[in-house]
């Protein structure tokens, strides 16, 4: 009798404690960004020769911060189903390389701008939007991170820069391409893009 | 005794559980209220569309979630975030023209200018030209019945023109005064009256636009004090300075957008549409907070 009661109360405590996430997404995003800033500010990595080391360190943080599959899935939206598992895996990989090539230089060019995290909004129990701002002398750039809970971790699945959602932007492009091309042709376009730059 | 304790636990569980879902509830409440506004103002047909176009910033998020999970709804909803592009061949040609213009002319000039003129001076110039944009922001606020916005703009213009040395500095935006620039224009004003984008058009020199925003471009010309300086080539010179100065502060932005894009033309079109849509949503929320029910109009026309 007492035992049953104990089990019941433990169960209830467990159930109750699950939905308490407030603050966690924000600290997760902020923590990841701070680690990026630490790498960029590291005086030991200042020399141009250390660029590759920096990139490697940033890649690890990126993997921890983003959910690449969720990210890719959302950019392909309904087209995701047209891809075979092998094509999906290749797409995720190529898309990641495209993003890295496009943004790594911008990130490495960072020169002590301030980054402020100031707001967390829970979209649903498992989704949150974090608002941050990069402050440069001539302007402020709002950057929002959309996060989703995967197990016990919060992962970013979309970045909204100056009100433009990255996922949405790529979704429009991929949609446009896939309207007249097969998934294989899209992969070919991405392969070329990764190679040429 | 046992059942008593159990019911207490149940009570706590029920009471605590929904707290974390508050955001969702609020979102749903928003979705539900907005159609009623529509019904009061306009035809029945609009009610079905209403939930998609609420002022709730996260509505889109729900739609996004649905894209991946059920493909059936996706098609119809995705259309809404796009813009008709019947002039695509012409627009693509103009896109390439502007692209070349940027890389061959504007960027080299702006880079040279950047070398010569220190950043604080360039920021001052930016403030100066921004201050001259006062008439269009002030009138846009008035047309939208946003009187506090209009007052803020008038205050900013006065303060910055007199104490900011003709607008070179921006003391009005300081912490003490906190008169922030109103993010509005004639395109947003038309949107607030329910005018939609129409279709996408890329103008040479001016870039992404739509018939609605073209009216804004025209308005910008007529409401800019610089346009009325004689002889005719003076305003041309100052406006060129405005463009070069602004470019010098944002070299690299266009490049990274282009570099990151798979199809730069589509990427820019989408960025333009997303950006305008968010501006309207924000304006919309502000109006809603002020008790003005412009929201209904917007929802009805699907203007974003």
What's the SSE blueprint?
The complex is a heterodimer of chains A (197) and B (304).
Chain A: H1 2-17, H2 24-41, H3 51-65, H4 68-76, H5 85-108, E1 114-124, E2 127-135, E3 140-150, E4 153-161, E5 164-165, H6 166-178, H7 183-196
Antiparallel strand pairs in A: 1-2, 2-3, 3-4, 4-5
Chain B: H1 2-16, H2 22-41, H3 45-49, H4 59-69, H5 71-81, H6 88-116, H7 119-132, H8 134-143, H9 147-162, H10 186-192, E1 201-203, E2 207-209, H11 211-223, H12 233-248, H13 253-260, H14 264-289, H15 294-301
Antiparallel strand pairs in B: 1-2
Helix pairs in contact in B: 2-15, 4-5, 6-12, 7-12, 8-9, 10-11
Brief summary of the model shown:
The complex is a heterodimer of chains A (197) and B (304). Chain A is of the alpha+beta class. Chain A has 7 helices and 5 strands.
In words, what does this structure look like?
The complex is a heterodimer of chains A (197) and B (304). Chain A has 197 residues and is of the alpha+beta class. Helix content of chain A is 55%, strand content 21%. In chain A, strand 3 (140-150) and strand 4 form a beta hairpin. In chain A, helix 2 (24-41) runs antiparallel to helix 3, helix 4 (68-76) crosses helix 6 and helix 5 (85-108) packs parallel to helix 7 (183-196). Chain B has 304 residues and is mainly α. In chain B, strands 1-2 form a two-stranded antiparallel ribbon. In chain B, helix 4 crosses helix 5 (71-81), helix 6 packs across helix 12 and helix 8 runs antiparallel to helix 9 (147-162). The radius of gyration of chain B is 24 Å and the shape is globular. Residues 9-79 and 291-304 of chain B have low confidence and may be disordered. At the A-B interface, helix 1, helix 5, strand 1, strand 5 and helix 6 of A face helix 1, helix 2, helix 4, helix 5 and helix 7 of B.
């Amino acid at each position: 009798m007492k035992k049953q009661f104990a089990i019941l109360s433990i169960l209830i405590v467990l159930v109750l404690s699950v939905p308490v996430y407030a603050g966690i997404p924000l600290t997760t995003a902020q923590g990841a960004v701070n680690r990026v800033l630490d790498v960029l500010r590291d005086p030991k990595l200042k020399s141009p020769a250390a660029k590759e080391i920096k990139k490697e360190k940033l890649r690890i943080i990126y993997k921890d911060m983003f959910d690449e599959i969720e990210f890719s899935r959302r950019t392909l939206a309904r087209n995701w189903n047209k891809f075979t598992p092998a094509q999906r895996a290749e797409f995720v990989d190529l898309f990641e390389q495209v993003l890295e090539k496009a943004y790594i230089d911008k990130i490495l060019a960072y020169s002590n701008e301030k980054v402020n995290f100031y707001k967390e909004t829970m979209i649903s129990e498992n989704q949150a939007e974090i608002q941050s701002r990069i402050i440069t002398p001539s302007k402020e750039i709002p950057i929002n991170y959309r996060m989703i809970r995967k197990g016990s971790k919060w992962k970013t699945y979309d970045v909204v820069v100056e009100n433009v959602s990255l996922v949405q932007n790529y979704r429009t492009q991929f949609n446009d391409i896939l309207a007249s091309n097969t998934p294989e042709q899209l992969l070919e376009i991405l392969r070329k893009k990764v190679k040429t730059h | 005794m046992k059942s008593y304790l159990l019911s207490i636990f149940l009570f706590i569980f029920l009471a605590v559980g929904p707290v974390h879902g508050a955001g969702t509830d609020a979102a749903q409440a928003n979705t539900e209220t907005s159609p009623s506004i529509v019904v009061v103002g306009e035809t029945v047909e609009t009610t079905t569309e209403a939930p998609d176009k609420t002022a709730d910033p996260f509505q889109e998020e729900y739609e996004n979630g649905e894209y991946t999970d059920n493909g059936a709804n996706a098609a119809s909803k995705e259309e809404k975030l796009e813009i008709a592009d019947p002039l695509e061949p012409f627009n693509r040609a103009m896109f390439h023209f502007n692209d070349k213009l940027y890389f061959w002319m504007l960027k080299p000039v702006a880079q040279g200018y950047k070398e010569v003129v220190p950043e604080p001076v360039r920021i001052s110039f930016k403030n100066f030209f921004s201050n001259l944009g006062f008439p269009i922001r002030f009138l846009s606020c008035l047309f939208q019945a946003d009187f506090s916005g209009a007052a803020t703009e008038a205050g900013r213009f006065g303060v910055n023109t007199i104490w900011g040395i003709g607008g070179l500095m921006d003391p009005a935006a300081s912490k003490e005064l906190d008169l922030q620039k109103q993010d509005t224009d004639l395109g947003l004003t038309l949107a607030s009256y329910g005018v939609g984008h129409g279709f996408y058009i890329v103008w040479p020199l001016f870039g992404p636009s739509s018939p609605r925003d073209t009216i804004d471009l025209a308005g910008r010309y007529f409401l800019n004090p610089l346009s009325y300086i004689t002889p005719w080539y003076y305003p041309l010179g100052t406006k060129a300075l405005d463009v070069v100065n602004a470019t010098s502060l944002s070299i690299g932005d266009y490049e990274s957008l282009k570099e990151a894009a798979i199809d730069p033309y589509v990427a820019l079109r989408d960025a333009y549409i997303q950006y305008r849509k968010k501006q309207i949503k924000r304006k919309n929320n502000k109006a809603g907070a002020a008790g003005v029910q412009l929201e209904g109009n917007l929802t009805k026309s699907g203007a974003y």
